[in-house]
Design a protein that fits this description.
5-stranded antiparallel β-sheet; Alpha-Beta Plaits; 33% helix
Length: 135
């Protein structure tokens, strides 16, 4: 059996202009020589999530769960890229890719722990946490 994951980079769906500008100013580039650790975490959210209106998802995503705020706390040490898969009829809705240096592994674990403790995460039906390292 083989896995094939597909996703597309898209616009930021739940961020305001100020949040997007701040993310862009703090976000580190991918493929930095020092970022030898990576994680690919495909995520599938429940139908209940998708049945919510866009403004309701934004309310849970940022106003309640502080998803962007949590993520910004770990920038630029942890670089990330989100790929959307739902509209491609893939088994996961999002493919989340992270890169970081070995000395930031504890920060990455804290990031995941903080995100998984939010109300938003109650809508996650499935996730797969795939870790990679390079020499």
């Amino acid at each position: 059996m083989a896995w094939r994951l597909r996703g597309a980079i898209s616009n930021l769906r739940y961020t305001t202009r100020n949040e997007a500008n701040r993310l862009r100013s703090l976000q580190a580039a991918l493929d930095r020589p020092t970022a030898t650790h990576a994680a690919l975490i495909p995520i599938k959210k429940s139908q209940q999530w998708w049945d919510l209106a866009q403004d309701e998802r934004r309310e849970i995503f940022e106003e309640t769960s502080k998803h962007t705020t949590i993520g910004m706390h770990y920038l630029p040490a942890i670089a990330r890229r989100l790929h959307h898969s739902r509209d491609l009829r893939e088994p996961f809705d999002f493919l989340t890719w992270f890169e970081f240096a070995p000395e930031h592994e504890a920060d990455f674990e804290a990031l995941l722990s903080n995100l998984r403790a939010t109300r938003e995460w109650t809508f996650v039906e499935r996730e797969v946490d795939i870790r990679l390292t390079r020499d």
